[in-house]
């Protein structure tokens, strides 16, 4: 019974979160038609405007690692030109969404359950942090490095995020810096350390087999 009540509350809060999309600054150009139909689609009906991919969030068991489920232009083509997208963020106890940026949109996060430590760094290197509780909202300005962390070692947290772009983009700071082709020597000089330390960090970020 408690599980059903939680699911009903989750559905209700997901619906509410859609209503806050217009509070997020749009980053997409205006379109000159009601909507855009991809070239590979010749017939549309109401199904084109419906996305069912979030059903798994309600049906699947809780994840064992941080998980983000997206409804962006890649998953939901009807969002093309509509300047909106959506994500559900699931945080097991003690998990983190590492520092990252969204180059094309601000992010408005709505915490549904649990607690989160969140923060972002502005262009003057000032850090803004907050501890969020269920029902709180927090905005991460467009393009700035930010993170979310569930510091509770016993309880999970779940949040939804609205974006003012159908394709906000995500640039992971750890992966972009250490898992690309930037020369190890350049990284060592940039971080004022040695190549062995850089390679150790890279090994830690490598996908697990």
TrEMBL record:
<keyword id="KW-0964">Secreted</keyword>
<feature type="binding site">
    <location>
        <position position="107"/>
    </location>
    <ligand>
        <name>Mn(2+)</name>
    </ligand>
</feature>
<dbReference type="InterPro" id="IPR006045">
    <property type="entry name" value="Cupin_1"/>
</dbReference>
<protein>
    <recommendedName>
        <fullName>Germin-like protein</fullName>
    </recommendedName>
</protein>
<dbReference type="GO" id="GO:0048046">
    <property type="term" value="C:apoplast"/>
</dbReference>
<dbReference type="InterPro" id="IPR011051">
    <property type="entry name" value="RmlC_Cupin_sf"/>
</dbReference>
<feature type="domain" description="Cupin type-1">
    <location>
        <begin position="56"/>
        <end position="199"/>
    </location>
</feature>
<keyword id="KW-0732">Signal</keyword>
<feature type="binding site">
    <location>
        <position position="107"/>
    </location>
    <ligand>
        <name>oxalate</name>
    </ligand>
</feature>
<keyword id="KW-0479">Metal-binding</keyword>
<dbReference type="GO" id="GO:0030145">
    <property type="term" value="F:manganese ion binding"/>
</dbReference>
<feature type="signal peptide">
    <location>
        <begin position="1"/>
        <end position="26"/>
    </location>
</feature>
<comment type="subunit">
    <text>Oligomer (believed to be a pentamer but probably hexamer).</text>
</comment>
<dbReference type="Pfam" id="PF00190">
    <property type="entry name" value="Cupin_1"/>
</dbReference>
<feature type="binding site">
    <location>
        <position position="146"/>
    </location>
    <ligand>
        <name>Mn(2+)</name>
    </ligand>
</feature>
<keyword id="KW-0325">Glycoprotein</keyword>
<feature type="binding site">
    <location>
        <position position="102"/>
    </location>
    <ligand>
        <name>oxalate</name>
    </ligand>
</feature>
<keyword id="KW-0052">Apoplast</keyword>
<dbReference type="InterPro" id="IPR001929">
    <property type="entry name" value="Germin"/>
</dbReference>
<keyword id="KW-0464">Manganese</keyword>
<dbReference type="InterPro" id="IPR014710">
    <property type="entry name" value="RmlC-like_jellyroll"/>
</dbReference>
<feature type="binding site">
    <location>
        <position position="97"/>
    </location>
    <ligand>
        <name>oxalate</name>
    </ligand>
</feature>
<comment type="function">
    <text>May play a role in plant defense. Probably has no oxalate oxidase activity even if the active site is conserved.</text>
</comment>
<feature type="binding site">
    <location>
        <position position="100"/>
    </location>
    <ligand>
        <name>Mn(2+)</name>
    </ligand>
</feature>
<comment type="similarity">
    <text>Belongs to the germin family.</text>
</comment>
<feature type="binding site">
    <location>
        <position position="102"/>
    </location>
    <ligand>
        <name>Mn(2+)</name>
    </ligand>
</feature>
